[in-house]
Amino acid sequence: MSSPTQQDQTEAETPPDREELEEIFDDIRSHPRYDRELNGCLNCGICTATCPSAHYYDYSPREIVQLLWTENLEGIHDAMQEKIWACAQCYTCAARCPFGNSPGGLVMVMREVAIKHGMESAKDVLRPFSRVMLKVMTTGNQLAPNMITPEHFPDWGPNISKVDAPLNILRKAIPMPTLQTLETAWAVNLKTSIELYTIWEETGVLDQLETIDENLFDVIVDIMDEKREDYQDWLDEQDEDDDEDGDDNDE
C-alpha cells in the first residue's frame, strides 16, 4: 500500500480529463483579447529569437502561439504549469512578429485562466507576493520600504543587500512628500483606497483572488469593510456639520 504522501503525489500528477482541457481552452479562446492577439503563425521563430526570457528559461513565445494555433489541449495545459510564468511581459515578441501576433498578450490571457481555474502553478507564483497584494488592495500602495528585504526578493541578485542601509535616514532625505515613513510608500486617502478596492471588486479581481488564496481574500475583505464603515462615518459627520451650518444660517 502506498503512503499518503505517495498517494497525494500521484493524484497531483494525474492529468485532467478531456472535458476539463476543453473547458480551459474555451476560456482562453473566449477571452476578449484572444482574437486580437492570435492571427496565425509562420513558425519563423523571430519572437523567440528576440525574447529575453527565452535566453534564460525553458520558454518560447513561438511554442505558445503554436500550441494555441493548433489547439493542442494537452500542450496548452502543460505550458500553463510553468512556462507561461517565465514571460517578462516586455512585448518584444509582439513588436517583431510579422503576422501581428502578441505571444505576450496570449500568455497574459493564459495566466488569467490559470488563476480562474485555481491551478497550483498560479498559487505557487502568486504566494510570495501575498504581502504586496495585501498592501495594494488595502492601502493603494505597492511597496513600502520596509518590505524590500533580501529575503523577500532573492531574484533581484546580490545588489539587493544594499537595502540594509539605514532606510529611515534615507527616507527622510527624499524631497517629495512621502509621509517620511517606512510603513507606506506614499499617502493615499481613504476615499481613493475604497474606490480602488471597488474597481477590483466589480471587475472580478477579488473573485480570482479568492480562488488562489482564500485566507488573503478574507483578510482584505475584513480590512476594507472596516474602511468602508470609517468612510461612511466620516460622510455622516459631514452631513451633520452641513445641517448645523444650515440651522445657524436660518437663525
Helix-strand layout with pairing:
Elements: H1 4-13, H2 18-29, H3 34-37, H4 46-49, H5 61-69, H6 73-79, H7 92-96, H8 103-116, H9 120-126, H10 130-139, H11 167-172, H12 190-202, H13 205-212, H14 214-250
Structure description:
- The chain has two domains: 16-117, Orthogonal Bundle (Fumarate Reductase Iron-sulfur Protein, Chain B, domain 2), CATH 1.10.1060.10; 128-246, no CATH class.
- The longest helix has 37 residues, at 214-250.
- It has 14 helices and no strands.
- α2 packs across α6, α10 packs parallel to α14 (214-250) and α13 runs antiparallel to α14 (214-250).
- The chain has 251 residues and is mainly alpha-helical.
- It is 58% helix and 0% strand.
- It has helices at residues 4-13, 18-29, 34-37, 46-49, 61-69, 73-79, 92-96, 103-116, 120-126, 130-139, 167-172, 190-202, 205-212, 214-250.
